[in-house]
Design brief:
This protein has 11 helices and no strands. With 290 residues, the protein is mostly helical. It has a domain of 192 residues: ABC transporter involved in vitamin B12 uptake, BtuC, CATH 1.10.3470.10.
Length: 290
């Protein structure tokens, strides 16, 4: 089993390594569904490529998906309207997702393999990934990671302290552009649902237990890696579809983390109550008979 599972495992872990970082940004910005919308926009670009008889997985196919995510980066960076806006950005992101999803369905219906293509955009085909593809994804993700590390102060400020950043829209566009490149690289392989899971669920788990960016990033990596390992083993052991099994594994790990968090909070409250009960009465004693 190891020889069959190794390439999908490494590929999924490479995707998770960068998506955990982007996920923390997404949660802090409170644009939870931007990754889902981004993935769907990229899938729309791939669907347009199929209409032009472009073979999936080729350089030309990447250009179609990248072109779509470039448009998405422009939309999401220039619709960051601020807290004073009557329209939350999440509404515009949701609209983008719905329209892109409808466009994928319409365009896919014009092709012979439309139903299969729609299924792959959701669940991907990670189980069939090859080592050359894994290496290519790893190189691109590493370059994006290095870029964000070099400009880490600026990237953190545009999310956590946007008031400090001059030319905020430009840097926001750069952030979303690199985010879009990462999505475009793997959306046809990983699928929309898996990408959303790797971006949001590990970040949520990390925020259950940590507050600093470094600690939450480490916990997101660890919980994401555990989810991927559990999902792949379950998929092979019970002969189930890999994409949906991975997403369900992320859900299971989230539930377990939530239970641990609740138990820890309950134990903390009990300890605090016991400490208060044992504490001496600070009020002055009154002598008997006074």
């Amino acid at each position: 089993m190891l020889d069959l599972i190794l390439a999908p495992l490494v590929g999924a872990l490479v995707i998770q390594a960068l998506n955990a970082y982007f996920g923390l940004h997404v949660l802090r910005r409170e644009v939870i569904f931007v990754d889902l919308a981004f993935a769907q926009v990229a899938a729309l670009g791939g669907t347009v490529g199929i209409l032009f008889h472009v073979e999936p997985g080729t350089g030309t196919a990447f250009l179609f998906t990248f072109g779509a995510t470039l448009i998405g980066a422009l939309i999401f960076s220039f619709t960051r309207l601020g807290e004073s806006s009557p329209v939350p950005q999440e509404a515009l992101i949701g609209t983008t997702y719905v329209v892109a999803s409808a466009a994928v369905i319409l365009l896919a219906s014009l092709t012979a393999e439309g139903a299969e293509h729609i299924s792959e955009t959701l669940t991907g085909s990670l189980i069939w990934v090859t080592w050359p593809t894994v290496v290519k994804i790893a190189i691109v993700y590493a370059l994006i990671g290095v870029f964000h590390y070099v400009f880490r102060r600026k990237m953190l400020d545009i999310t956590f302290h946007p008031e400090r950043v001059s030319r905020l829209r430009l840097w926001d566009f750069i952030f979303y552009l690199t985010f879009g490149i990462a999505i475009a690289m793997v959306v046809n392989l990983a699928g929309v649902l898996f990408l959303f899971s790797t971006l949001v669920i590990p970040a949520v788990i990390a925020l259950f237990f940590a507050q600093s960016f470094g600690a939450t990033l480490l916990l997101a990596w660890l919980s994401g890696a555990a989810s991927i390992l559990i999902g792949l083993i379950a998929s092979f052991y019970w002969d189930m579809a890999t994409g949906p099994t991975l997403v369900c594994a992320f859900g299971v790990v989230l539930i377990v983390a939530g239970v641990i968090r609740m138990v820890a909070n309950l134990g903390g409250r009990k300890s605090s109550a016991a400490s208060r009960d044992r504490a001496p009465d600070p009020s002055p004693s009154v002598p008997a008979g006074s």
